[in-house]
Specification:
The chain is an alpha/beta fold. The chain is built from ten helices and nine strands. Helix 1 packs parallel to helix 3 and helix 5 packs parallel to helix 6. The longest helix is centred in the N-terminal third of the chain and has 17 residues. The protein starts with 16 loop residues before the first helix and ends with a strand. It binds glutamine (GLN).
Length: about 290
């Protein structure tokens, strides 16, 4: 391989770029060139890490093998974050595995809205990777948090993320089915629960349908099961004046708003995401 075939910074091989991108395109990957660039950067950065004398391999060859691995995995429509093992969210880089929902950019709206009022104690129901509660705690160094999940394996990932993001001392991560094993009151309760209706699961892209945890997606027959459980326990676990912020699917604003109002909460607003779709219902436990 001639020197011009390599990335000058990392020594990573860049030959066959077009054929790699073509493979991704043929597999139906939506942003084939963008995903190739991210796999390429990951292969170069990881494949050229100087991890001591035990690694004797030519870094270019190692990076090439990782590139080939990354592209083949992405061809199966495995989510990019699961392949490279991480995802940027808010101001952090979060570990991602097949046990947690891949943090989506639209979920950052929960963080943004959470930060609009002071809070000392925050509860995140169905925390997954922990991205929401951890981001909130990173922004509020005096606050403490609880992130629950029904999945122990998800909580292990959340624990690692809390540690790498420096908030581990301020968060506890218990197993709980919504409010079942939660005590006390919180001035902010947030959640991105599973909200996909049973009959719509089949319409999700293969990345989501085949590779993401079903328990993080499936919201029962009408997609609203989790909101019913959250509505039922909300007033008991919110301080007077405390806020509830839940992510919703784009067509669920009316359904979720009525569930929360019927549970005795005051509806503050339905907030749209950057694409203009309804994304978060905000409610308050009136004092
Ligand atoms: N936004 C996700 C999707 O459909 C669903 C996540 C959820 O159910 N909370 O890709």
């Amino acid at each position: 391989m001639s020197p011009s075939d390599r990335n000058p910074r990392t020594g990573c091989p860049v030959t066959r770029q077009e054929s790699w991108i073509a493979r991704l395109r043929a597999a139906g990957v939506p942003d084939a060139a963008g995903d190739f660039r991210r796999i390429f950067r990951w292969a170069c950065d990881t494949g050229t890490t100087d991890s001591g004398p035990q690694v004797r391999e030519d870094p270019g060859a190692l990076a090439l093998r990782m590139l080939e691995f990354g592209v083949s995995e992405r061809e199966t429509r495995r989510p990019l974050s699961q392949i490279i093992g991480k995802r940027e969210f808010w101001k952090g880089t979060f570990k991602v595995t097949h046990d947690v929902l891949d943090p989506r950019p639209e979920t950052e709206l929960l963080v943004e809205l959470g930060l609009q009022e002071p809070f000392a104690r925050v509860l995140d129901l169905g925390t997954g990777s922990g991205c929401v509660v951890i981001s909130l705690l990173m922004e509020r160094p005096n606050a403490r948090g609880v992130g629950t999940d029904i999945s122990k394996r998800a909580l292990r990932v959340a624990r690692e993320n809390a540690e790498s993001m420096g908030v581990a001392e301020r968060v506890i991560l218990p197993v709980s089915d919504w409010f079942d094993d939660v005590d006390g009151r919180y001035d902010l309760v947030v959640s991105n629960p599973p909200y996909v209706a049973s009959e719509e699961i089949g319409d999700l892209p293969p990345e989501v349908r085949c590779h993401e945890p079903r328990v993080a997606l499936a919201g029962g027959i009408d997609g609203l099961s989790a909101y019913r459980a959250i509505a039922a326990g909300a007033r008991k676990h919110l301080t007077p004046g405390g806020r509830l912020l839940v992510e919703i699917g784009p067509a669920q604003a009316d359904g979720v708003r009525s569930l929360m109002a019927d549970a005795g909460l005051d509806i503050l607003a339905v907030h749209a995401d950057l694409d203009g779709r309804d994304r978060v219902v905000a409610a308050r436990n009136s004092a």
